[in-house]
Design a protein that fits this description.
- This protein is α/β, with parallel strands linked by helices.
- The protein folds into two domains: 3-150, HUPs (Rossmann fold), CATH 3.40.50; 154-312, Beta Barrel (Elongation Factor Tu (Ef-tu), domain 3).
- Helix content is 25%, strand content 27%.
- The strands form three sheets. A six-stranded parallel sheet has the order 1-4-3-2-5-6, sandwiched between helices.
- Helix 1 links the parallel strand 2 and strand 3.
- The chain starts with a strand and ends in a 40-residue tail after the last strand.
């Protein structure tokens, strides 16, 4: 089971390899870095740990703290070093940061991306870690690794957020190497879906700290009681009924049952169309029928809009040149790394949104 170690408070005694970074999104680059770190940890008999900021670094998060813990556990990480990015932490120098880690965690090795910055005013960098590792008194080794590129672009949290801003979840999913998803509790909505429109829906609480994707109608999937359901989701307002609350509401084709109070994960597969104002519930229902026909593969159905045609392009992942390997003490343990983590924004946001109807 994944252990959460609080920075400057909790101890971790087993010899460990610690990966440094922000890890807001845990994207393709992060996954490659963790994969390489996992191999190095295995070779050297070390537990694998990953540093993450609990609430990011000042913006909204692609994945919440709890969602990131689940992903990291699935990737074989043994523990996370959880850090609160606050004013007090921002004043800690790069070397004091490393010494504090060493005081509480039995670190034998560090890994990070070459562009990783840390410490007060971000003065710490890969060369700082290299020098720290070269000091025999510290008893650690350090490996830095380079970027992963997708269609010539560095895979980064910033790029993924840009895709979400555009509703381009197809590209975002490729960059994440998984499907962008939202995990939240099913709550009561306005009750219009089944009664007025004829499409019973579930209303899912969108976490307050979660980065918002473009408002619109999406093809989504969810696993409910071991069964995979496909549906259409409205993220945004409900102008047909004059409801300006921003909400996440989903209709699952073929599902019948009570989900109130349960926690669901909604995976976003494709942007279908913009939110529209319809004359009445009957006109809205007719559009939802077309949306459902579209997600079921009816090419003649009116649905997917042309503004995202470019999102269909394949994301060709390439590697930069072989990673630099810095100061590994153990002989024969040098590997060629192919990635680097992105230490970009994440963060704290306002309260969670309300619920509404598919529109």
């Amino acid at each position: 089971m994944l252990k959460v170690v609080e920075y400057g408070k909790d101890e971790y005694d087993f010899p460990a390899l610690l990966v440094l970074g922000c890890f807001d999104a845990i994207h393709l680059g992060h996954r490659e870095l963790i994969k390489k770190a996992k191999l190095q940890a295995k070779i050297n008999g070390l537990d694998l740990g990953v540093m993450i900021f609990r609430d990011g670094k000042g913006g909204k998060l692609v994945y919440t703290f709890e969602e990131r813990l689940q992903i990291l556990e699935s990737l074989g990480v043994k523990f996370v070093l959880a850090i609160d990015f606050n004013e007090q932490f921002m004043e800690i120098s790069a070397l004091d940061f490393l010494h504090t880690i060493d005081d509480y965690i039995n670190v034998k090795a560090y890994m990070s991306g070459k562009d990783f910055r840390f410490g007060a005013k971000a003065k710490g960098k890969a060369s700082t870690l290299k020098s720290f590792a070269e000091d025999d008194e510290n008893g650690v080794w350090y490996m830095s690794v380079k970027d992963v590129l997708c269609d010539g672009e560095k895979v980064s949290t910033t790029l993924i957020k840009s895709c979400l801003d555009d509703g381009n979840v197809i590209k975002a999913n490729k960059l994440l190497d998984s499907r962008f998803n939202v995990t939240g509790e099913v709550v009561h909505g306005a009750g219009r879906g089944g009664e007025e429109v004829g499409f019973p829906t579930v209303n899912i609480f969108y976490p307050a700290e979660k980065y918002p994707l473009k408002r619109g109608v999406y093809k989504v999937t969810s696993l409910i009681d071991g069964v995979q359901y496909t549906g259409i989701a409205n993220y945004g307002t409900c102008p047909t009924f004059g409801d300006e609350r921003v909400a996440l509401e989903v209709y699952y084709e073929g599902f019948s049952g009570d989900l109130y109070g349960r926690t669901l994960t909604v995976c976003f597969e494709e942007y279908i169309r913009d939110i529209r104002t319809f004359a009445d519930a009957h006109e809205l229902a007719a559009q939802l029928e077309r949306d459902i026909a579209y997600i079921n593969g009816d090419a003649s159905a009116e649905s997917h809009e042309e503004q995202l045609a470019s999102s269909e392009a394949q994301c060709n992942v390439t590697e930069c040149t072989d990673a630099e390997v810095d100061g590994i003490d153990s002989a024969d343990n040098k590997t060629e790394s192919v990635t680097e983590q992105d230490n970009t924004d994440g963060g704290v946001q306002s309260e969670g949104t309300a619920v509404s109807e598919i529109d």
